[in-house]
Amino acid sequence: MEPETRPKESVVTALLDRTRAQTFDEDAILVERFLAGDSDAFDQLYARYYDRVYAMARGVLGDADEAADAVQEVFALLYRNLNRFDRRSRFGTWLFRVAVNRTIQQARRLKHVSKQRPLNEAVAQIEEPPREEPDPKIEEALSRLNPSDRAILVLFYWEDLSLQEIADSIGCGVNAAKTRLYRARERFRAVYEGEGA
Q1: Contact 166, 177 (CB under 8 A)
Q2: Predicted pLDDT at 96
Q3: pLDDT at 124 exceeding the cut of 70
Q4: Coil/strand/helix, residue 129
Q5: Where are the domains of the chain?
Q6: Most buried of 40, 57, 77, 102 (most Cβ within 10 A)?
């Protein structure tokens, strides 16, 4: 009986070890390679995350050109400061935290400049065709929210991040993220239904 349990245990252990190795943050390996002088590793991180960071920035800023600028600034910041990544969280989480903070800062700077373009026009600049026509009423409601509300709504609804991932990205606890998401939803609902911001 003992020989049967040992192989099963060793198979399970081997499978768990393999799963851990596969789910091990591959990005951490790329970070280490970059820090060791392999610039191609940063290019791989850039390619892996560009679309997601762009989508988040586009959702917060509401402008394709501003979003592209924000993404370039985010990756330039990462390039210069990747040695500060402390590895307590996953690279993707840290990247989104930097991206959210940078994008919100840019949105606040641009607050006085009205560069709102219809979402259809901005989406036309993107190479991929849109899956669905965006609702102009949703676009308008989002544009009237403050950048931090837009950011949390984008992270939750567009990026499909969990509350824990959102909390890590914006630097707060899970309960605070849940509260902020609830309040952002309520403010969105009020604006969407015409009750004001």
Answers
A1: yes
A2: 86
A3: no
A4: coil
A5: 26-192
A6: 57
Side-chain half-sphere CA neighbours of 172 within 13 A:
15
pLDDT tens across 3-55, in order? 444 455 555 555 445 444 444 568 888 888 999 998 899 999 999 999 989 98
pLDDT of residue 46: 92
Q: Give the integer Cα–Cα distance in Å for 196 and 54.
A: 29
Q: Which amino acid is at 129?
A: P
Amino acid at 88: R
Give residue for tokens 């800062």. Answer: 105
Rounded Cα–Cα distance for residues 170 and 95 (Å): 11
Amino acid at 16: L
Quick one: CATH architecture of 26-192? Orthogonal Bundle (1.10)
Report residue 24 as tokens: 């091990």
